[in-house]
Amino acid sequence: MSLAAAVEAAFAPARAAIAQRRIPGAVLAAADLAGARSLVFDGAAQIIPTPAAMTADTIFDLASLTKVVFTTTAILRLVEQGAIGLDDPLVRAIPDLRQYDMEAAERKLTFRACLSHQTFLPHVEPIYAYGLDPQTSRAFVLQREWRQGPPVYSDINFMLLGIAIERLTGAPLEAQLLPPGFTWRPDPARSAATEACSWRGRVMR
Questions:
Q1: Global pTM?
Q2: Whole-angstrom Cα distance, residue 7 to residue 16?
């Protein structure tokens, strides 16, 4: 079977879901070891409020995949450079983490524990709902006494790692270098919609 035929076969469930209006659209790309590439797409990048067709170069929000594609890679690169060790506490990079309580549990969190979601931090916290500017939001994450629980997949782990990256490199996340094909500021007109956000009152694209 050719690569193109294999990609088309793999895309069939997505194409059926689009026809049944279970999903708005999809894109699938693949490459073989010889370097040949094949890409298929179908459906819409946005349905409301204005329809927009899916294209071969539609940009997608990777959401939490950013944790793997960027944050984990950046932390491991800093480990490789000797800037930190995986079992170092975060306070090596963020000395002001819970700075008003030197015995706080948050000050004992390690890079390894945050990377592997083996901390007591909560699954999610609606920090966006507080309407704070980025710097104040960072301070909130750093100084809050977080409720403790069993290890779970936690956004807070990677927020802390993101702050550590900024401190260790001396540059904000949006100024960090990304692999080819990735961007911090995609063109909305080329992007797939992600949700009709009840908080913002609009479709996020």
A1: 0.87
A2: 14
